[in-house]
Amino acid sequence: MAEKPEAKLVVTSTAFGEGQMIPSKHTSDGENVSPDISWEGAPEETKTFVLITEDPDVPMKGLSLFTVVHWLVYDIPSAVTSLPEAIAREETLDNGAKQGKMSLGRIGYAGPSPPFGTHRYYFKVYALDTVVSLEPRKATKKKVLSAIEGHVLAYGELMGRYKRHR
User: Fold this and answer.
1) 82-116: buried (b, 16+ CB within 10 Å) or exposed (e) per residue?
2) Burial class (CB in 10 A: 0-12, 13-18, 19+), 79
């Protein structure tokens, strides 16, 4: 797991605040489009950013929990400090950032769709002193975290929640 340095990034969204409910528009019950995400506070020596969105509340058989990755964006250039709403599900974005594979094996954002109860969704942003340089189709959370080990300059997260209304 990538270390969490003392330097803090402030991560925000106009769609929801810390601990608030994620609007249906950004879930599988709605349009399933990514929310806008912004961050600030990166050190000057930052070369790229990584964004990982995950749900740690998915139960496995038995009592353990499994973390599901809903979005993986890496090699975000240091001049970019936000991602707009509804990012295309493409390997390489217009700003040069790349999207890796989420838990369902696809590229791009997959909105919340908890099977039951209220789940937490963490939008984690890492400021790096390096470039990840992985092929999008081969970039998984595990590979990205391994590639950034020892290169994290700052870290921040925004947590939103979602419960399906059936």
Assistant:
1) ebeeebeeeeebeeebbbbbbbeeebbbbbbebee
2) exposed
According to DSSP, residue 25 is labeled G
Q: What percent of the chain has pLDDT over 70?
A: 92
Task: Report the distance separating Cα 55 and Cα 32, nearest Å.
Answer: 15
Q: What share of residues in the chain are helix, strand, coil (percent, to 5)?
A: 10, 40, 55
Q: What is the pLDDT of residues 33-53, one digit of tens each?
A: 999 999 999 999 999 999 999
CATH code for the domain of 19: 3.90.280.10
Q: What is the DSSP letter of 31?
A: T
Residues 7, 46: Cα–Cα separation, whole Å: 12
Does an H or E element contain 145, and which? helix 141-148
Report the domain count for the chain. Answer: 1
